[in-house]
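Typical record is below.
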Amino acid sequence: MISQFHAEHRQIVAIANRLLKTINPDDPPSIEELTKVRVDLAASSDAHLVREIKFVERTLGLRDDIMAQSIAKRYRSGLMDLQLSLGAHNGRWNAVAIRADWVGYRSAVRDQLALAVERIKWEERVVFPLIQHLEPTTREQENVTII
C-alpha cells in the first residue's frame, strides 16, 4: 500500500507541475484549459486521500502506542488544515477572480501547491516509515508488491 501512496504522490506532484506550467505564462490560458488541470489535480488528490486516510487511521490511529496516536492526530489535524486552505483557495479563485487578478492567482496557486508538497514530504519522511516500523508486515507486503 505504501508504494502505491508514493506513486500517487508522484502523480499528484506531476499534475501540480502541469498546473504550474499552465499558469506560468504572463498571458492567462483559457479558463477551460486551466479548469481541466485544476479538476485533474482535485480528482487525483481526492481519490488518493480516500485510500490514504483509511490506511493511516487503521495502521496508526487505532494503535495503543502513544507515538502512533500522536502522529495519527497530527496527520488528521494537518490534513484538516490543508483541506480548509484548499477550500478557501477554491472559493476565492473562481473564473471571474482569476481573470481580474492573474498575478494574485498565480501567487496563490504557488503558495497552495507548496503547502501540499510539504505535506507529501512530511508523510513520506515521518508517517510511512513509522507505519513500516510498527507494522513489519506492511514492509514485507510492499516488497512482494514491487517484485
Observations:
- The two ends are 14 Å apart (CA to CA).
- Residues 142-147 have pLDDT under 50 and may be disordered.
- DSSP finds six helices and no strands in the chain.
- Residues 92 and 128 are 33 Å apart (CA to CA).
